[in-house]
Amino acid sequence: MDTYNIYMDELPTGEAFDGEEMVEVEFRVVPGSEDDGDAESNAVIAGLDLVDLINLRDALQQEIDNYALSALEVAAGAVAEGPVS
Fold this sequence. Notes:
By secondary structure, the protein is of the alpha+beta class. It has one domain (3-80). It contains 1 helix and 3 strands. The chain has one helix at 50-81; strands at residues 3-17, 20-31, 44-49. The protein has a 3-stranded antiparallel β-sheet with strand order 2-1-3. Strand 1 (3-17) and strand 2 (20-31) form a beta hairpin. The longest helix is centred in the last third of the chain and has 32 residues, at 50-81.
């Protein structure tokens, strides 16, 4: 079974916050068989097999769903309480 390497790339946005340059973070998943193995330019965060990769995806999706649901519940509670006088 092939493994998959997860990479995190930081790209400068050209903006600054509190004197520090802002970066945009992007993640890439590359099959281990297609990876060039250049550790200097591509530091692997994790090497996962397909089952672990699917489990990671499911766990991330669950956290996204939980966050969206809690935000929706807060918004619904604010609407139910009506305007503040």
